[in-house]
Amino acid sequence: MDIKYGYVSGLERFFYVLSIIDVFDRVVVKQYRGASCEAKHAVQTLCYALQSRLSAGDEMPVIRTDNGPQFVSKLFGDMSESLNVVHERIPPRTPNMNAYIESFHSILERDLFSKRAFKTFEEAYDELDRYMDFYNNRKMHGSLKRKPPVVFSAWVKTLEDSSAFHKAM
């Protein structure tokens, strides 16, 4: 999980994009975008991500972040503790230790932010939503057997279901 900045040239203002990526299947599970990004936004986004990806009885994932103020806040720490989420913070100045989200954010910069000038926040958010649909559902990944993240994730589940079925026989 990490935060990236975008820019609305029509208003000469920045906006924030907080993204959470599943490092196994590269699905960007949840994203927050807004004119500010505080600890409460990080907590809400993480809670929504967990709700959308976990079923009853699933093990909680490890959450890896940098040491941004949102992630070192008491609120984020209390939430992690109350949900029994392991929160790993990478050492300062080591973005390579959070490579999956850093890579995704560089792709987002290359494919969207550097190619578009946004006049309004709404325009930026609409374009970001369109790009996220493309990224998760249609963008092929060499590391995912040339499948988009959502397709790869579904494919892996069919393999797991098949394996469980054969073990039960």
TrEMBL record:
Q: Name one GO biological process term.
A: DNA integration
Task: Look up the domain of life of the source.
Answer: Bacteria
Q: Which Pfam families match?
A: rve_3 (PF13683)
Q: Where is the Integrase catalytic domain?
A: 1-156
Q: Which GO terms describe its molecular function?
A: nucleic acid binding
Q: Which residues form a coiled coil?
A: none
Q: Which PANTHER family does the entry mention?
A: INTEGRASE CORE DOMAIN PROTEIN (PTHR47515:SF2), LOW CALCIUM RESPONSE LOCUS PROTEIN T (PTHR47515)
Record's protein name: Integrase core domain-containing protein
